[in-house]
Each structure stands twice: as C-alpha cells, then as structure tokens.
Amino acid sequence: MKEFHIVPNKEMTEWQVRLEGVAPEYVYMDKDQAIKQAELLAKEQAPSRTVIFNHLYEVIEEKTFNE
C-alpha cells in the first residue's frame, strides 16, 4: 500500500507531499492544499493512505483509501 506523507518544512512555511517519505513531489504554502493533493493522489492509486505529520514529525492524522 502506498503512503502519501504531508509534512511541514522546518520553518513551518511550506507543506510537502511526499510518496512514502522520499523527496517532495509537491510543495504548498497552505496545509489544506497539500492535504487535498495528497488525498487526490491516494484516491487515484488506491489502495493507499495519507499520513499527516506535525513539525516534530509525529503522526497527527491518517486516512486510508480503498478504491
């Protein structure tokens, strides 16, 4: 199952969408935009999930997409 991570940068000025923790595929100034993009990717590549992290790299939310 693929995982799309939504992670802030160190300064909390950008939100990055990454496939399973690799280099950012997309970068957004707004957290909500990053979440929308990650969810769209996850739905297109179901089964998959999104994982949102805070600035300490702790998981704050997970969502699974099954088809």
Distance between the termini: 12 Å
* Main sheet overview: 5 strands, mixed
Q: Provide a count of the helices.
A: 1
Low-confidence stretches: none
Q: Using only CA atoms, what is the Rg? A: 11 Å
Short key terms for the protein model shown above:
single chain; 67 residues; alpha+beta; 1 helix; 21% helix; globular
Folded structure, characterized:
This protein has a five-stranded mixed sheet with strand order 3-2-1-4-5, with helices on one face. A hairpin with a 5-residue loop joins strand 4 and strand 5 (59-65). The longest helix is centred in the middle third of the chain and has 14 residues, at 31-44. It is an alpha+beta fold and 67 residues long. It has one helix and five strands; from the N terminus they run βββαββ. It starts with a strand and ends with a strand.
